[in-house]
Write a structure and sequence with these properties.
Blueprint lengths: L4 H11 L17 E4 L6 E4 L3 H18 L7 H15 L10 E5 L6 E3 L4 E5 H6 L3 H16 L2 H7 L19 H11 L2 H4 L8 H17 L5 H16 L5 H6 L4 H13 L11 H7 L1 H4 L2 H15 L3 H14 L4 H13 L3 H14 L5 H12 L3 H14 L4 H13 L3 H14 L4 H12 L5
Parallel strand pairs: 3-5
Antiparallel strand pairs: 1-2, 4-5
Length: about 450
């Protein structure tokens, strides 16, 4: 199949951009009306049923976890976090929800939950906390959001993000660095958090209250909530960029700290003699604590990527990899950075190392595909995107990139079939326009 000059220009732009985005959050279904809040017992307007909360959670949580470089490959740590989390769910207001807990490889400071209780903590926040009581407060807070149905409430009010996350247009006016900036910021970290609910201050206060209630029932020292608030306030002053995502979705205030301190002393004063289980916490995060210098360098590098300081970012990631050559997040970030520096062959090297180290996590496969496209290796790119789809189905951008790869392989009919599948999910945007124009040019649509 012959390509026009315009086609070749389009493909060149494609290799410089990252098209990862998360599927659109499931829209509110037909069950419109009032529901009873499981915490307060009050009637509230709710357009999202419990079944839909579970569906959104199951469909979207895996994409967010992948955007955060997957669950840490430390089974003991994930088991410990699960144990602490589960100690609170059974005494919550919604014990029947399908809760799950894990640490993810992201280095920014945050924790989050999806509507049905798929909860994640980042490596960044685990390294900031000092004891198990603070961990219980963190997880209890997220469990509180689930129990008060805050995500469903925000969707009902139109505040739950349902837009494409980290999507990039193919506008022709970008400079090379601006194109690369969209690429390197496109997967993981701060941008991916746009899918999650942006809680109000009232939501946060209620989740704090519920979190302290649940952790106290689990015999955790309620001062853990006060300690957690203090950690976040101090960290926000020392390194504000690392908390950007957390404070965006979990607005912080001095009032929250003061309230937690007062509530612990008055409502739960008799439980302040409980141990904070610091030694147990430190034992369980011992491997992670050994990685703190690596996490610090990755935080520096991600901040530099955001500022388009790509050479500085490369140096930060190189320092991290010298200390931890098998760190999956470091390899993925270095791959992104090399793409930003227009070095797709080197980017492919790091992406393939990441694939080898964590074969069941999807980002390495996606970056391998982008790198192969940039090198003109369409068949290899197609295989990488197919593998990504097997690992993490439901991402329309993967179909689009498969279509582009098939175009490069001059397999017009197969590309048309893939583009047609893509257009069933995505109707607007530059990618959709390109797919539709190909179907028109090839005579599949009029």
């Amino acid at each position: 199949m012959a390509y026009s000059l315009e086609d070749r220009a389009f493909q060149r732009k494609l290799t410089r951009r990252d098209f990862i985005w998360l599927s659109t959050v499931a829209a509110a279904g037909s069950m419109t009306g009032c529901a009873k809040n499981p915490v307060t017992g009050d009637s509230q307007l709710m357009l999202m049923s419990e079944a839909e909360e579970i569906q959104v959670d199951q469909e979207q949580a895996p994409h967010q976890f992948s955007a955060d470089y997957g669950a840490v490959q430390d089974n003991a740590l994930n088991t410990y976090i699960t144990t602490v989390g589960n100690s609170m769910t059974q005494s919550s207001h919604r014990p029947h929800m399908p809760y799950s807990f894990r640490a993810v490889n992201a280095t920014y400071v945050n924790a989050y939950t999806f509507p049905a209780g798929s909860i994640a903590t980042t490596r960044g926040i685990l390294l900031e906390m000092d004891n198990e009581a603070e961990l219980a407060a963190l997880l209890g807070h997220e469990i509180g959001h689930v129990n008060a149905r805050h995500a469903a409430e925000r969707q009902t009010k139109g505040l739950l993000a349902s837009a494409v996350v980290a999507g990039a247009s193919l506008a022709t006016q970008y400079s090379k660095y601006n194109e690369y900036a969209a690429l390197v910021q496109g997967i993981g970290g701060f941008a991916s958090g746009a899918l999650l609910a942006k809680y109000s201050r009232d939501n946060e206060r209620q989740a704090d209250s519920l979190g302290m209630e649940y952790m106290s029932r689990a015999k955790q020292n309620p001062n853990g909530m006060t300690g957690l608030m203090e950690v976040l306030v101090n960290k926000s002053q020392a390194k504000p960029n690392a908390l950007e995502a957390m404070f965006s979705s979990h607005p912080m205030s001095q009032d929250r700290y003061d309230t937690a301190k007062q509530r612990a002393a008055s409502q739960y004063g008799s439980l302040l003699v409980l141990p904070d289980n610091r030694e147990r916490y430190m034992d369980n995060i011992a491997k992670l604590r050994a990685m703190k210098p690596v996490v610090d360098k990755l935080q520096d590098g991600e901040a530099q990527l955001k500022q388009e300081k790509f050479h500085d970012a490369k140096n930060s990631f190189a320092r991290a990899l010298r200390k931890a050559p098998r760190d999956y997040a470091a390899l993925v970030l270095m791959s992104k950075c090399q793409l930003a520096l227009d070095k797709p062959k080197t980017a492919r090297h790091y992406a393939q190392k990441a694939q080898h180290i964590y074969p069941t996590e999807a980002q390495g496969h996606h970056l391998n595909g982008i790198s192969q496209l940039a090198m003109g290796k369409s068949a290899d790119a197609y295989q990488a995107f197919k593998r990504y789809e097997q690992l993490l189905p439901g991402n329309p951008s993967t179909l689009f990139l498969q279509g582009v790869s098939l175009e490069g392989m001059q397999q017009k009919q197969a590309a048309a079939e893939v583009y047609n599948r893509y257009l069933k999910s995505v109707k607007q945007g530059d990618q959709a326009q390109h797919a539709y124009s190909r179907l028109q040019a090839w005579g599949y649509v009029r």
